[in-house]
Each structure stands twice: as C-alpha cells, then as structure tokens.
Write a structure and sequence with these properties.
elongated, alpha/beta, 5-stranded mixed sheet, Nucleotidyltransferase, domain 5, 16 helices
C-alpha cells in the first residue's frame, strides 16, 4: 500500500490508477497499472478520445529503480476505434511510441548522463546504450522546442575539431553575463554553416545582438559583417596572442636549425615553453633559462620581446590610447626584419578596427568564455572516446552545454 501511495504522489497519471498489489518477480519490482473505470482511451495519432475496441497482451515499462530493485510498470494496452484513423492503439502518457521506458526514467537517465559516460549510465541502470541515447535525444528535442531565444545580446563564434583530419564543428554560444550557453552546432566551418544559424535565429532576434566575438577565420568575418553589421564585432585577444606565439615558435625553430647547421651551440633547444608561457605561470627553472637567453642578441628573443610588449595593449581603458599604442607597435613590428612577426603584423593591421572594437564595448567581451565552453565540449567528447556520427555529438553537446528546459514532473527523482 505504501508503494501505491508513493507513486500517486510522485508520478500521478491522469485516467489511470495503480493497482493495490505489487510483486517481486526475478529480482524486479512489478507495479500493476490499469485504466480508470468508464474512461476512454485516446487515439495515438490525433489524441482524441475514442471507444475501446479490445485489449492487447500485458507489457512492462521500465520505471526508476527503488531501493536497489529494478522497477517496471505492468499494463495491458487498449486498442480504440478512432473515427478518423480506425482501430489503433491508445496513447500512453508515460511512454512514447513503442518505447519500453517511462518518461520519468528518460529524465533520470538523461540527468545522470551529464556526469557519467553513456555506457556507464547504461551499465549502472540496466539498460543498453541505445536506450540512453534515445532518452537524451528525447529530452534535447523537448528542450530545443521550448527554449527561449529572445534577449540575446552577445554571442561568440568558434570551431572545434571533432574527428581525425580537418573535420570541424561551428559552435555559437550566448556569452551574456547572466546567461552562457550553447545556441547552435553546425557541421564544418564554412560560411553556409554560420548563415544557417542566423536564418534560424530570425531577423528580429539578430537585430537585438549588440556584440559578437570571433577569431580571424575569413568565412566567419564575412557572414558576421553581412548579418550583424549593426553589432560591435570583436576579434578575440586569445587568438591574437596565439598568432604571436606561433610567430615566436616558428622563429625559434628556424634559428635553432640555422645555429646547428653553422656549428654554433644550439642554446635555444628546450626553450619552447620559456618563450610561449606567460611569466606568471613559468617555473623557476624556466625563468632562469629565460634570463640566460636575454643576454644573447637572437632573432627569437627580439620576436619574444615584441610579443610580450603587445600584451600592454589590453591594459588600456580608452580606444584612442589603445589605437595609438597599436599603431606604434605595428610600425616597430614591420621594421623588425623578422619575417614571421611581419606576417602577423600585416594581418593585424588589416583587421585593426575589429581589434580596437574590444575597447568600444563596456563589458569587454572576449572569447575566453567561449574557450572555456569549448573545453567542456572537448571533455564531453573525450569522456565518450569520440562519437561516430554528427547527430550523436550534436545531441550530446546540446544536452551538456545548452541549458535546455526539461519536461516537468510532480517530483524530482535526483
């Protein structure tokens, strides 16, 4: 009697009643369910009530485990005579289609799938991997239908690699201070992929976006210039520092090879992270190595010092001060006779208006938020040792990062 009372409180089903007798069979707890007396079943297609036709064989639907016992709801499904669709099985409010998993158990599995791998969730709760995936897919589909896409003020656009080779996903995040979530996943990193997001968002919602962060990938810049011409487009400072680090590293490799070829001591060997890491994060041995390298007049060290001086750009509070500093730095870089650094300087000069937009926005948006969310996306893929199809990874990332609404229940089972 206690089990029936618990079920009526945590998961009441309109038009159906739980039986008085629950039983253990083969180590599982079976709970009888029947339709209310004189109630009519609903057509599974049009959801209209229809008179009963006959009753099918007994069937079990998996429910949330209790006290370490697997739990199943046992019900004899009715067939109804629908005026429009003929004789058809009734609609079940606790299960979808031919699924043998109840709605609360779907939410239960999808909840634990945020913390464990899908394979481990299946093993712990006595289901298979496909049932876990279908549960998550069901919850994600509900969330995408009911999520609120209004009042988006700032977005970040980036890409991550998800398979071997040059296979990328385009990810669009909302990076507002009050809400940071995944908005869109697109296969490949092309202009068409990003255009698809703006078409889904609509012109009215696009007009409300005030700031957008991205890197220097040309297809993204082209689409953003077309669709968000009114918004402040900010080039991500983390990617800019990455380009400068690559220039330092390429210069180091070239100079190390030249010194070895000319018979000099390769003092730049094992100095990569001394030159690329931020001073705050360097170890005492790396700082000592750096102090030793500064004594020599090397191209690598001149490139390194110019790269470090560029960091002062982000300290400025006004646009005109930052613009003056950037102009002087670009002039020095172009006269440095360092080919790798000059390539980066030419690229930055071409997009300096977008770089300076960082100082035009009060919130000082950066893709640092996006990089943090990308790290969570990569962790999701790593936890599962990769996904075979795009559909699977799309469902997984929306589930993990989308902050999607879930169907409401009378009781939370976690």
């Amino acid at each position: 009697m206690l089990i029936k009372t618990l079920l009526n409180n945590c998961y009441p089903i309109k038009g159906f009643v739980y039986g008085d007798q629950s039983r253990l069979a083969n180590g599982a707890l079976l709970i009888d369910l029947r339709s209310r007396r004189r109630s009519k079943g609903q057509c599974s297609k049009c959801r209209r009530e229809a008179p009963g036709y006959d009753t099918l064989n007994e069937r079990q639907f998996q429910f949330i485990p209790m006290w370490g016992y697997p739990v199943s709801i046992v019900y004899r499904r009715r067939r109804v005579a629908c005026p429009e669709h003929g004789v058809i099985v009734e609609h079940l409010p606790w299960a979808e289609g031919k699924s043998s998993i109840t709605e609360p158990f779907r939410l239960f599995l999808s909840h634990w799938a945020r913390f464990l791998s899908w394979k481990e969730v299946a093993r712990q709760f006595g289901v298979n991997w496909q049932q876990v995936f279908e549960s998550i897919e069901h919850v994600v589909a509900y969330g995408l239908r009911h999520r609120d896409m209004d009042n988006i003020r700032a977005i970040g656009v980036d890409e991550i690699q998800y398979q071997r080779g040059h296979h990328y996903l385009t990810l669009v995040y909302q990076i507002d201070l009050g809400c940071r979530r995944l908005l869109y996943i697109g296969q490949r990193r092309t202009a068409k992929t990003l255009l698809r997001f703006f078409r889904q968002l609509g012109k009215a919602r696009c007009a409300m976006i005030q700031a957008v962060c991205s890197d220097l990938w040309k297809p993204y810049i082209k689409v953003i210039r077309k669709k968000l011409a009114h918004a402040i487009h900010i080039l991500d400072k983390f990617h800019i520092m990455q380009y400068l680090n690559n220039a330092v590293d390429n210069t180091r490799r070239e100079e190390t090879a030249r010194m070895r070829h000319e018979g000099y001591e390769p003092i730049l060997e094992k100095s990569r992270w001394c030159l690329l890491k931020n001073k705050v994060n360097q170890t005492p041995s790396q700082l000592a190595k750096l102090r030793e390298l500064v004594k020599y007049n090397l191209k690598t060290m001149r490139c390194y010092l110019l790269k470090e001086s560029f960091r002062h750009l982000w300290v400025y509070r006004t646009r005109w001060g930052a613009e003056r500093f950037l102009k002087i730095w670009l002039h020095r870089a172009m006269r440095s006779r360092l080919p790798e650094l000059k390539k980066v300087a030419k690229r930055l000069r071409k997009h300096q208006e977008l770089i300076l937009n960082y100082f035009s926005c009060r919130e000082r948006f950066t893709n640092g938020i996006v990089e943090g969310l990308n790290l969570k996306a990569k962790l999701t893929m790593r936890k599962s040792f990769g996904f075979r199809t795009f559909k699977t990874i799309e469902v997984a990332l929306y589930h993990q990062l989308g902050k999607l609404p879930e169907p409401e229940l009378a009781h939370r089972f976690w």
